[in-house]
């Protein structure tokens, strides 16, 4: 355990408390209905509201969220677990109910293993 702590301290600059961002993938969600889903906000306490405001502002500053307009509305809740920071979660269950299901077949693992088993070198890109 001491060795692990030592390594984590040595390479701490490679770790971040902030989530990473990518622009490598753009995803479009297809819906089965053009009727917008609007769910009224859940009731939350004043304390939870202040925590949510602070977290939303932090996420805006980090570029994780951006201000926008939409005909769709899903309620946000604050998940609080003992010994962990509270985190905002959005209840998208109603929206999820109208998303068109897409199927992406997974490659056959036995075929992949068979192809690489005879290889002397394997390149990972």
TrEMBL record:
SUPFAM superfamilies: DNA/RNA polymerases. This is Retrovirus-related Pol polyprotein from transposon 17.6. One of its GO terms (biological process) is DNA biosynthetic process. Gene3D superfamilies: HIV Type 1 Reverse Transcriptase, subunit A, domain 1 (3.10.10.10). Coiled coil: none annotated. InterPro entries: DNA/RNA_pol_sf (IPR043502), Retrovirus_Pol_polyprotein (IPR050951).
């Amino acid at each position: 355990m001491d060795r692990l702590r030592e390594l984590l301290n040595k390479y701490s600059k490679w770790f971040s408390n902030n989530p990473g961002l990518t622009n490598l993938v753009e995803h479009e969600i297809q819906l089965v209905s053009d009727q917008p889903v609007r769910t009224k906000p859940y009731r939350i306490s004043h304390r939870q509201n202040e925590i949510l405001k602070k977290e939303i502002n932090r996420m805006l500053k980090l570029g994780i969220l951006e201000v926008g307009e939409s005909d769709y509305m899903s309620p946000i809740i604050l998940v609080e677990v003992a010994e962990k920071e509270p985190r905002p979660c959005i209840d998208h269950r109603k929206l999820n109910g109208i998303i068109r299901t897409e199927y992406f077949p997974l490659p056959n693992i036995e075929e992949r293993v068979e192809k690489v088993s005879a290889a002397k070198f394997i390149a990972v890109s």
